Structures are given as structure tokens and as C-alpha cells.
Amino acid sequence: VREAAFALAYSDVERAFDAFLKEIGNRPFIIAGHSQGAFHTATLLEKRIDGTALQKRMVAAYIIGINLAEGEFGKRYNSVKPCATPAQTGCVVQWNAYLDGVADAAKLAPYSQSTYVQKYGDDAGKVTLCINPLTFDMTRKAAPASAAKGAVAGSPGFGPLGPLKAGAVAARCENGLLMVSPDKALGLEPLAGGVMHYHDLGLFWADTSANAALRSRAFLKARK
């Protein structure tokens, strides 16, 4: 039942993507999704973009809040690579946020790696891809709160965003998971076990927006 529901949802995403491509013509694009949306974004990347002419037009793919493993690049994805630097284009960004001091990255890692292990085996590629959204640099796995450009306060909900709060979250990649230390003034509520799934993107709203703009400028400059 779950697989059928996901397949139906993905078919809608693919039709929307076709309509989007028709609308934008030959212009570059960014794809992005969170949670189930990230699952469908990852599938779209695999089935419609990786290794095709569309890959040359993709600025970046932000696939947030799922367990995409490092080893899937070269196995599931033949051409697309993880984003190693902040201005790299045609690549993939991913992270999963957990509350530092509450969640245990070492204990959670086997769960986050389980889908990869079942499909490809227990090899070094099982580590979940973690790109720190405060650095967007695979060699800089940790960053202090002073690097944070702006987080959304409060629980997710309807209506406009409130004022963004800068310098409100530190983050580091550990065992493929993003361990975050948000300012208590943000008023965020983690799920059981320190899972910050509802805040994966909100914690780094301004950082992600700025990075998308940076990659877009780099992409357009390279095309001149």
C-alpha cells in the first residue's frame, strides 16, 4: 500500500515537472524537496535528470530530510555528484538534523544506513550524505552559531514566516547526521529522541536561500 501511494504521488510530481519544463523553456533550474518531497526529488533526479541533457541545466538539487547515502553516487546516480563546495553546480545537497546532546549519532547511524545496506550491501558507501548547511563544504563539517545566517523561530505552521534569527544554531556532521544546537529562544520542539525533522530547513532558511543564489550566480557565470 505504501509503495503504491508513493508511486501515485511520484507520478504527480513527474507530471508537474514536465509542465514546469515546458513553462521555463531552456532556462536552468533548481529542484528541492523535504521528507516525502525529498524522496520524490531523489527519484526524479534518478529517473529524469541524471546522465541526461537536463543535468546540464540543473543548478543544484536540495534533497533534505531523507537518508541518501554517499555510496548511491556511482551506483544509483551515474553522473550527479554530492556538492563538495558552496558554489559547485549540478550537484546534490542533503542533511538530516538531530538535537545535539539528546540524539546519539553513533546509535542512529545504523538506522539511517539500513536502506542502503539492504540494497547494496554493508560497505563504506553506507554513510548518509551530510552537507553542513552552515558551510556547504564537505571538508568543513562543523560550524559555530555565529556562521548561521537566519533560522525560523517557532513550530512549523500556516501563515507567513516570522522574523529570521541570525546566529541561532551551531551544526556539525557526525556519522552522516547533522547534529544541531539551536538557541532556546527559537522555541523549537524536537520529536522524540531529539529528531529535528520538522526543522530541517527552517533552522537554515536564510543559509539555504543564500546558497541557492550563490550557486545560481556561479551557474550563470559559467554559461557566459
Can you walk me through this structure?
The structure is a single chain. The protein has 224 residues and is α/β, with parallel strands linked by helices. Helix content is 32%, strand content 17%. It is built from four helices and ten strands, in the order αβαββββαβββββα. It has helices at 2-24, 36-49, 105-120, 205-223, and strands at 29-34, 58-64, 81-82, 91-93, 97-99, 142-143, 151-152, 164-165, 169-174, 177-182. The protein has a four-stranded parallel β-sheet, sandwiched between helices. Helix 1 (2-24) crosses helix 2. It is globular.
Describe this protein with a few key phrases.
single chain, 224 residues, alpha/beta, 4-stranded mixed beta sheet, 4 helices, 32% helix, globular
Q: Briefly note the structural class of the backbone.
A: alpha/beta
Helix content: 25-40%
- β-strand amount: 15-25%
Termini Cα gap: 48 Å
Low-confidence stretches: none
Number of E-state strands: 10
Computed over alpha carbons, the radius of gyration is 17 Å
* Overall pLDDT metric: 96
- DSSP summary: helix tally: 4
Brief overview:
With 224 residues, the protein is of the alpha/beta class. The chain is built from 4 helices and 10 strands.
Write the layout of secondary structure elements.
Blueprint: H1 2-24, E1 29-34, H2 36-49, E2 58-64, E3 81-82, E4 91-93, E5 97-99, H3 105-120, E6 142-143, E7 151-152, E8 164-165, E9 169-174, E10 177-182, H4 205-223
Helix pairs in contact: 1-2
